[in-house]
Design goal:
The chain is mainly alpha-helical. It has two domains: about 5-105, Orthogonal Bundle (Fumarase C, Chain B, domain 1), CATH 1.10.275; about 110-355, Fumarase/aspartase (Central domain) (Fumarase C, Chain A, domain 2, Up-down Bundle), CATH 1.20.200.10. The chain has 20 helices and four strands. It has helices spanning about 15-20, 25, 30-45, 50-70, 85-95, 95-100, 110-145, 165-190, 210-215, 225-230, 230-260, 285-310, 325-345, 350-360, 365-375, 380-395, 405-410, 420-425, 425-430, 440-455; strands spanning about 150-155, 155-165, 265, 350. Helix 3 (about 30-45) packs across helix 7 and helix 4 (about 50-70) crosses helix 5. The radius of gyration is 30 Å and the shape is elongated. About 40% of the residues are buried. The chain binds arginine. Arginine (ARG) binds near residues 22, 26, 109 and 320. The site of arginine has 10 residues, from helix 7.
């Protein structure tokens, strides 16, 4: 059962085994463990450290184990300490002595460092794929809503009119940066620790560059002590995942507000909403709330990992085993949230009329009204005062600025002419904003072209 019984005279205490084992969670990367072992023995045989016959027996055995675990024929059981022991034990059972040669020139320290990197690399790619899907949905909605006017907010108070496309575009930028962060992390972590041994390399003539190449890495890592104890890439990933979770949470919060009875900007699809056991009228945005709530555990994982690492003397220490559960949980949480969020947004309907009405009622064109006066020679500070007084009048009378008669405009300032209505229409306010990054459709189209070209490149490592 154990890889290290030789120097012991007593059985391990059962509680110690339970506390020490990692197979209950590192079973998650059995495929990566097997792929790493296949690359290792392929290299050993190339270097003449292992016979070709042994290599072939081991590779066939390992492939069989993977297939049997995949199909459910072989169950990963917890009397083993970790997935590495399990695979080696089953291999030896199946192919005999060759199996006992698998671990030549290797330690579980470099093995687990490799497995985790391989696993994380795959998960980065999957997360990138989910972000890609979300961006596609957002881009589609942006194209449909270039002229859907809505209030833009500061301090959650109506500020200036924007479009739904532009508002969604802000989130597009966030998730686009998230993809960039994942790509950066992937690039920096893509070096192979295998061959670092327990901490000090090995005396066997390993070809580390070859193993690295077989496993799709950009090369071997360059310091064996760092290699077995480096978990920076996990901290970077947890940080990137925390930022993704934060973005999803902000967006969820807005959707919850938009879906409230007071706003009614959006309507959640029934298939993405839940009801109340007591209040028959309720249709609740539980999914958005859960996504917002799950942010906490992702942040928690980042803080845990930073704390695990802060006192670890070189090189490997068992504390490092704590990297797994929390990282797995954070990844699974964020992937789940991304998939659910994409489904929720693509099934949601937007009440464009309510949005536009809300922009009108909220004096979001007040800045443009002041600018109109500036265009007619009124100093900005005076124009600001004029419009302020008109807004006050409108609030008293329950009106929008556009509802005032020309006489009422002129009574406050004679510079107003009949073209004021055109100048402060939602359409004019928005469409005149055409500088890079602004909400006008002309500017948005240029940006959308950039996004489309990027999306054509697909996911980074598919
Ligand atoms: N389960 C261990 C981990 O996750 C594997 C490495 C064990 N190495 C050791 N020297 N005990 O870190």
């Amino acid at each position: 059962m154990k890889l290290w019984g030789g120097r012991f005279t007593k059985e391990t205490n059962q509680l110690v085994h339970n506390f020490n084992e990692s197979i209950s969670f590192d079973r998650k990367f059995y495929r990566q463990d097997i792929a790493g072992s296949i690359a290792h023995v392929t290299m050993l045989a190339k270097q003449g450290i292992l016979s070709e016959a042994d290599r072939d027996a081991i590779v066939a055995g390992l492939n069989g184990i993977r297939e049997d675990i995949d199909s459910g024929k072989l169950e990963i059981t917890t009397e083993y300490e970790d997935i590495h022991s399990f695979v080696e034990a089953v291999l030896t059972e199946r192919v005999g002595d060759a199996g006992k040669r698998l671990h030549t020139g290797r330690s579980r320290n470099d093995q687990v460092a490799l497995d985790m990197r391989l696993y994380i690399r795959d998960e980065i790619d999957e997360t990138d794929g989910l972000l890609f899907e979300l961006l596609k949905v957002l881009l589609g909605l942006m194209e449909e809503n270039l002229h859907t006017y809505m209030p833009g907010f500061t301090h959650l108070q109506k500020a200036q009119p924007v479009t739904l496309a532009h508002h969604l575009g802000a989130y597009y930028e966030m998730f686009r940066r998230d993809r960039g962060r994942l790509a950066d992390i992937r690039k920096r972590m893509n070096y192979c620790p295998l061959g670092s041994g327990a901490l000090a390399g090995t005396t066997y003539p390993l070809d580390r560059a070859y193993t690295a190449e077989l496993l799709g890495f950009d090369g071997p890592t360059l310091n064996s002590m760092d290699s077995v104890s480096d978990r920076d890439y996990l901290i970077e990933l947890l940080s990137a995942l925390s930022i993704i979770a934060m973005h999803l949470s902000r967006f969820s919060e807005e959707i919850i507000i938009w879906n409230s009875n007071e706003y009614r900007f959006v309507e959640m699809d029934d298939s993405y909403s839940t009801g109340s056991s007591i209040m028959p009228q309720k249709k609740n945005p539980d999914i958005a709330e859960l996504i917002r709530g799950k942010t906490g555990r992702v942040y928690g994982a980042l803080m845990s990992m930073l704390t695990v690492m802060k006192g670890i003397p070189l090189a490997y220490d068992k504390d490092l085993q704590e990297d797994k559960e929390l990282t797995f949980d954070a990844i699974d949480t964020v992937k789940g949230c991304l998939a659910l969020f994409t489904g929720m947004v693509s099934s949601m309907s937007f009440r464009k009329d309510v949005m536009e009405e809300s922009a009108k009622k909220g004096f979001t064109n007040a800045t443009d009204a002041a600018d109109y006066l500036v265009g007619r020679g009124v100093p900005f500070r005076d124009a600001h005062g004029v419009i302020g007084r008109l807004v006050l009048k409108c609030i008293d009378e329950g009106k929008a600025l556009d509802d005032l008669t020309l006489e009422e405009f002129k009574a406050e300032c004679p510079a107003f002419e009949s073209d004021i209505y055109e100048a402060i229409s939602m359409k004019t306010c928005v469409e005149r904003r055409t500088t890079d990054g602004a909400p006008g459709a002309e500017a948005m189209r240029r940006v959308i072209e950039i996004y489309k070209k990027e999306l054509e490149q697909g996911v980074s490592h598919a």
